[in-house]
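Give me structure tokens for this 330-residue protein.
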Amino acid sequence: MKTAADFKKQGALTAQKHQKIQSETDHAEKKKPVKKKAKAMQAGARNYPEPPMPRQHLKKPGKEADLRLQPCFDAPYYKGSDKLLNKVAIITGGDSGIGRAVAILFAREGADIVIVYLNEHEDAATTQQLVEGEGRRCLCIAGDVSQKSFCNFVVQKTLGEFGQLDVLVNNAAFQLHVEDFEDLSELQFDTTLHTNLYGYFFMAQAAVAVMKPGSAIINTGSVTGLLGNKDLLDYSLTKGGIHAFTRSLGTHLIDKGIRVNAVAPGPVWTPLNPADKEVREITHFGEDTPMKRPAQPEEIAPAYVFLASSHCSSYITGEVLPIIGGYTGG
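Here you go.
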């Protein structure tokens, strides 16, 4: 029978083996050439912009027309196939960024579009022209989704114009970085919650009241709702709430035949971020993802088509789809 001394000796021998393995690995690593900075991954139909991004800071809410580097939103290689033929979709924050790209692809798939936005009238008019260029109708409505009365107005206006509502995309958001927790004001916290949570709730409640079986709600979540972000405490809180809201409402509405899902993007080049980050920070936007660059809106929009179409996702509800450019692996 082995004694304590035998086990101690075995422990020492095992430690020596570990050291030998470590030494061999260290020697092999030293012989390797110094790695060059990884290039951004380009796996799309066309190449997309890579950091450094333009040094620009926009005033909120941020206008896409003012961006020096225009986002890629028109998805020229995407071919429609009637996945949303004769459907009607409301898209909040649909004037620019992800919302604009979604509006274009929805229209390309046969849907009429209602764009809801705050006050970016020029951006909304451009999106309207793009939707109409796809051969579909587009209604633009300006207002604040954090107000329940406005959300009810949007739904009733949609019914009056198009006679139906089949898809709701909750996408409007407020985001602002704060480096020190003590500097996160009650006003900012309240604004973020009312826009990102109350806005989604009010729009969903108004929409569900008129939606028929086969309809769909798609919420825009975020990687911050999955992993957190130390400088976006309030925003991350709301995005995590949106994910939970999606899962809960998805189950709740099964009896009504309405599916509810979410898309959780990582960094995406839209007006939201240059209207948030300082100039010195925006140049590095997206470079800390495994793909080493931010996504472009047209890379995110097809996921919304997939989740909106009963041809593609009829058995999917309550899910959160991350599109974040890869996981770091720890």
